[in-house]
Write a structure and sequence with these properties.
The protein is an alpha/beta fold and 450 residues long. The chain folds into 3 domains: 9-87, Beta Barrel (OB fold (Dihydrolipoamide Acetyltransferase, E2P)), CATH 2.40.50.140; 112-140 and 285-449, 3-Layer(aba) Sandwich (Rossmann fold); 147-263, OB fold (Dihydrolipoamide Acetyltransferase, E2P), CATH 2.40.50.1070. The chain contains 9 helices and 25 strands. It has an 8-stranded mixed β-sheet with strand order 9-24-25-23-22-19-20-21, with helices on both faces. A 7-stranded mixed β-sheet has the order 12-11-10-13-14-15-16. A 6-stranded mixed β-sheet has the order 3-7-8-6-5-4, with no helix packed on it. Helix 1 runs parallel beside helix 9 and helix 8 runs parallel beside helix 9. The radius of gyration is 24 Å and the shape is globular. The two termini are 46 Å apart.
């Protein structure tokens, strides 16, 4: 996520057999022709395709090479020689250096358009199109992120603790004093970290920090050796000042600094409270998460007598709201600790009509007894790798309605083609604005049998 430290030659064999090199750090003038699906500018020069972070179409820019392979070069803008009328001024002064928010130079509305175009293109590559393109589900442009990982590194030479985020295409740390996409509750906690950690007596023990916001707020410190007692007391005082729980992780799982500490997030529309622990997968955008759940249920249209399958159920983010509207939910997850917490969440929310099963969903589920008992509808929210094996199983089971929540349009398109080939139609699809200011595209799709 940051700039490279030193030039390094990446060599490849161009047409004609002549050896050539394009060193990391080399600067080059380019004319940008269009945007890639993730918002990078695309230019063509000397038989190579350049993907340029921070560039827009019709701009002339000076760029710096980040990496090169075969005929593809990745670079970032270092100077604008002519600027697009579409360019806006980023709200964050570290935009273009920090690798987190790569689209702050593009308006929020244009970001949504770009992500919609990416979804349409990825599906069309597999010969799939939606019968209806639903309106994008849009959330806040800033101050939405309720969880973040903060990079921390002790610079021995300068006796200084670097605190910030990884830079663009690098492991170097960009020292950031504030983060405009963090929720308001976490911004002061983040802002004080550099001063806190640079006052430690044993900064060599520091790993990284994670911040969490929900019904309660928390700070997790990953440490590589035992903390100095004075440092631990400083950390405790800091957390007390900002009213955040302290969690520590040395060897093994994260542990609360005080007994009785718990973390949870609310889903107010459904009256739910979902408990989690550091390390669990939690959607980072609370507002979008609630809107996404509501839309998924609207599209799935579960009836009171239905039996619904929820694959990749995690903590029960979809399973518990579904259980409020159906006779029975079968929730399946591959991570045993997450499944155990999902079961606890169902019990805590007094939902007794959810059955939980552990299963490796990267492979077929047809051998599982629960998979052959019939379902009126199914919902799946897989990781970036998608769900190729289980969508084929769902098609064989002839599940009438399937809602697919995706964090990777390419694997969604691949899996959609499997369903289409087996008699489903893509009734509707839309973009989910889960990660504003970034190039990540999230989507929802409804498949209907027949």
């Amino acid at each position: 996520m940051s700039r490279p430290k030193a030039a390094k030659s990446l060599r490849f064999q161009p047409a004609g057999g002549e050896r050539n090199s394009l060193p990391v750090g080399k600067k080059q003038m380019l004319n940008i022709e269009r945007l890639s699906h993730d918002g990078r500018g695309i230019a063509f020069l000397d038989g190579r395709t350049w993907f340029v972070s921070g560039a827009l179409p019709d701009e002339q820019v000076q760029v710096q090479v980040l990496s090169a392979r075969s005929k593809v070069v990745e670079a970032q803008v270092v100077a604008l020689h002519s600027s697009s009328a579409a360019r806006i001024t980023p709200q964050c002064q570290w935009a273009g250096q920090c690798g987190g928010c790569t689209l702050q130079h593009i308006s929020h509305a244009q970001q949504i358009e770009l992500k919609h175009a990416n979804l349409v293109e990825q599906l069309s590559r597999e010969g799939v199109t939606a019968q209806t393109w639903a309106e994008p589900l849009v959330g806040p442009a800033f101050a939405y992120r309720r969880r973040t990982r903060v990079a921390v590194r002790y610079d021995v030479k300068h006796k200084h603790v670097q605190v910030g985020f990884r830079g663009l295409a690098s492991t170097a740390i960009v020292e950031v004093a504030e983060c405009v996409i963090l929720v308001a509750e976490l911004q002061p906690v983040f802002a004080g970290l550099s001063a806190l950690l640079n006052g430690f007596k044993q900064p060599q023990a520091l790993g990284h920090i994670e911040l969490f916001s929900g019904r309660s707020h928390a700070l997790l410190l990953r440490h590589t050796q035992a903390l100095h007692l004075d440092d631990l007391e400083q950390l405790r005082a800091y957390c007390a000042e900002y009213k955040v729980q302290l969690w520590l992780q040395g060897v093994g799982e994260p542990q609360p600094d005080q007994a009785g500490q718990t973390l949870s997030y609310a889903v107010p529309q459904f009256g739910l409270d979902i408990a989690y622990q550091p390390g669990d997968f939690v959607q980072v955008n609370a507002q979008m998460n609630e809107a996404m759940i509501a839309q998924a249920l609207e599209w799935l249209a579960p009836q009171a007598e239905d039996r619904v399958l929820d694959l990749f159920c995690g903590l029960g983010n979809f399973a518990l709201p579904l259980a409020q509207h159906t006779q029975q939910v079968v929730a399946v997850e591959g991570v045993a600790t997450m499944l155990a917490r999902a079961r606890d969440n169902a019990r805590a929310n007094q939902l007794g009509n959810v059955e939980f099963y552990h299963c490796d969903l990267s492979a077929s589920m047809r051998s599982e007894v629960w998979s052959r008992q019939g379902f009126n509808a199914a919902l799946l929210d897989p990781p970036r790798e998608g769900a190729q094996a289980v969508v084929a199983d769902l098609a064989k089971l002839k599940v009438p309605r399937i809602v697919y929540v995706s964090c990777n349009p390419a694997t969604l398109a691949r899996d959609a083609a499997v369903l289409i080939a087996r008699g489903y139609r893509l009734e509707k699809a839309c973009v989910l604005d889960m990660f504003a200011q970034t190039g990540h595209t999230e989507a929802m799709a409804l498949f209907v049998k027949g």
